[in-house]
Amino acid sequence: MKALERAAGVGRETIRFYVNAGLLPEPHRLGRNVALYDASFVDRIRLIKQLQQRRFLPLRVIKAMVQGDTALAPAEVQTLADLDRHLFRAAGIDRRHPPVRLTEVARRTGVAPGEIRQLAAAGAVEIVLREGVQWLDDAGVRIVELYAQLQAAGFEAFGFGPENMRLYADMARWLAREELRLFTRGVAGKTSADEMTRMIEAATAILNQMIGVLHASVILRFIASGRVPPALQRPLPRNARPRQREKNQ
Question: Helix or strand or coil: residue 178?
Fold first, then answer.
């Protein structure tokens, strides 16, 4: 294990934690106190630290990316890790901005703290709990700002509230999951980093416009039919748990 510690730049307690958490496979044991760690362990540990420290992904997300039957290949994981800066930039979100206290976001937007927590319960934003204080990242702040604009436009008077955001959060998760699956499986390791960057930036702008046009088109077709479509029965799985997590150590 000492050789692995030196090569990966982490201590043995971290390695044992990753193994116990399922982030690393069990090593091949030659004896009670002797285990064999091949080069793949070094690569996996470096990737985990990169995703955790540079991309700010929680360990539960990293585990889903690197473990199990649906685990991504190393090239696919790296592709996914490189996507964030392009996608967030296209959405006007800067991951370099420090998180903002939930109470400060409430003061700025006029959305009550309890209502922001309800948005988290609906899956629309993620609250980070750090030393007993609740924080929102730049994406969460932007979503609360947009929600406040909807309320100011008059939707609050018609009963539009945090629970209604669950529909959009569910749809966004489903769409994002399918898009990432198609992109990582189809592009990873098959093109240069520069070409991939160009494709991401072009696709983000085009698809965002396409989704807006498709959305408006479907609404107009329903209006033209002269009737309101019947409600679908739970088109997507609902996750009612608040999206709140402890900051990774």
Answer: helix
SS3 call for 162? helix
**Helix or strand or coil: residue 235?**
coil
pLDDT tens for 157-214 read: 888 999 999 999 888 888 877 777 777 677 766 777 677 767 777 877 788 889 889 9
pTM of structure: 0.59
Beta-carbon contacts of 17 under 8 Å, excluding residues fewer than 6 positions away, are none
Which of 78, 80, 74, 1 is closest to 40 using CA atoms? Answer: 74
Strands 100-101 and 127-130: unpaired
Cα–Cα distance for residue pair 75/188, rounded to 1 Å: 6
List of residues 6+ apart from 154 with CB closer than 8 A: none
* DSSP H or E segment with residue 155: none
- Each residue of 4-49: pLDDT tens digit? 888 888 888 888 888 888 888 888 888 777 888 888 888 888 878 8
Domains of the chain: 1-71 (1.10.1660), 81-246 (no CATH)
